[in-house]
Amino acid sequence: MIRSILFVCLGNTCRSPTAEAVFRVLAEGRGLHIDSAGTSGWHDGGRSDPRASAEARQRGYDISPIRSRKVTALDFETFDLIIAMDFENLQDLRNVQPAGSKARIELFLPYAPELNRDEVPDPYFEDNFSKVFDMIETASKGLLSTL
Ligand code: 4NP
Question: What architecture does CATH give domain 4-146?
Answer without folding.
Answer: 3-Layer(aba) Sandwich (3.40)
